[in-house]
Amino acid sequence: MADVVLKGVTKRFPGGVLAVDNVSLHVADRELLVLVGPSGCGKTTVLRIVAGLERNDEGDVYVGERLVNDVAPKDRDIAMVFQNYALYPHMTVYDNMAFGLKLRKFPKPEINARVKEAADILEIGDYLSRKPKELSGGQRQRVALGRAIVRHPTVFLFDEPLSNLDARLRVQMRAEIVKLHARLGVTMMYVTHDQTEAMTMGQRIAVMHKGIVRQLDRPLEVYRRPADRFVAGFIGTPSMNLLEGTVGPRDGGFVFRSESTTFDMPHVFDPVVRQCPHGGITIGARPEDVVPVTAPAAASLVLGEGTVDLVEMLGNEAVVHAALGKTSVVYKTTGDEVPVRGDKVKLSVPLSRVHLFDSKSEARLEHSSDRS
After folding, report:
1. CB contact set of 366 (below 8 Å; sequence gap of 6+)
2. Could you give the CA distance from residue 187 to residue 100 in angstroms, rounded to a whole number?
3. Which of the residues in the chain have pLDDT under 50?
4. Distance (Å, whole) CA 246 – CA 267
């Protein structure tokens, strides 16, 4: 097995497009690392650079202790699973899985053993004589995985392999890939734009935006303590509520003003406010942390009174959209007391669940009531 290390990797495409900007990553041996971000953020380019399908303009790529900048893709001991299954339609499942080994002139008994082993792992042993057109989407994806497994690579790369599947199959296959990682004990890098895949699959996740890794950490740490405003807004469904405004002095403390609301900042935030002499602060709150109340608790931040304009019933919970001035604040509620359109709701957030960001740098601002 092997770890994967990227040191200051940069990639530019014709026309001056900076696809990857000085990315440094260390994927530990046997780790499953997920690269997640919106389309065009550079995550697939990073994967292709590791695979050798794209050449980095600057920086170094190591697989294990070997520098692979000038190593051909076929010699990097890496297997890649693409979004497109890329199966040969005229070949059986067996032949599709065995094709790469045949090219490398492996003995037939070893080819048979490897294909059978991979087919048993993926539970597709009954389909070895079928052709791709006779398989479901999930089965075809298993064949694509099997084709990679038979090579016994040191590193697996996955480029949005589940995006062509329906919702039910995506849930099933992401669980299968996690189980596969545990069973094989290999290093894996997985690219997706789906934050649910990232949160449920990755031992760590790297959130990318505009060619930069904005945060690299364990999934729950990224969710609970987003490093900046972009990560806060990207990770989470529904997205984090973000109120952008300015903070100024009033009556020995500070007052927050935005287009939607005005309220006094709790004194626990005074040290943070003083870190922002320009006064621009964005307040964030996860929908599950926003609470409609009649009498807010002492250790809470009252955002103001809003008007319910949309209620999404999801069965075990409801997602409520309330208009707070010009801003829509989203919160979740359970039980039978679900508001209806037009209801007035006073919204507050426990101080320990408030996120603060510098509006200029977008960086997270820590405070004493922050999550531990």
Report:
1. 272
2. 21
3. 372
4. 16
